[in-house]
Amino acid sequence: MADGVDKAEGWFYCLKHKTVEEGMVCPARNRLGPYATEAEAARAIERTKERNEEWDNDPRWK
């Protein structure tokens, strides 16, 4: 435990604060992840948009 926060393994992107966080700092409803690296977590929103576009254009879903 560091600074009173139980840090689980992995990196997360907090939707509420729009920041990358190490461990489960904010509630699950506000997090994307876990990601293996800080850089991956920083790209969470961009990657989510890419995946949504891929799924929107996937003929298997139409």
Helix-and-strand structural type: alpha+beta
Uncertain regions: pLDDT < 50 for 5+ in a row? Answer: 1-6
User: Count of DSSP E strands?
Assistant: 3
Widest sheet: strand ordering: 2-1-3
Strand content: 15-25%
H/I helix tally: 2
What is the approximate shape? elongated
Radius of gyration: 14 Å
The multimeric state of the shown protein is single chain
In helices, the fraction of residues equals 25-40%
Largest beta-sheet characterization = 3 strands, antiparallel
Overall mean pLDDT stands at 88
What is the CA–CA distance across the termini? Answer: 47 Å
What letter string, H or E per element, gives the SSE order?
EEEHH
Domain unit count: 1
Protein name: SPOR domain-containing protein
Organism: Streptacidiphilus alkalitolerans
Fold and architecture overview:
- This is SPOR domain-containing protein.
- The chain has one domain.
- Helix content is 29%, strand content 21%.
- The protein contains two helices and three strands.
- It has a three-stranded antiparallel β-sheet.
- The N and C termini lie far apart (47 Å).
- 10% of the residues are buried.
How is the secondary structure organized here?
Elements: E1 11-14, E2 19-22, E3 31-35, H1 38-42, H2 44-56
Characteristic terms for this protein:
elongated, 62 residues, 2 helices, 21% strand, 3 strands
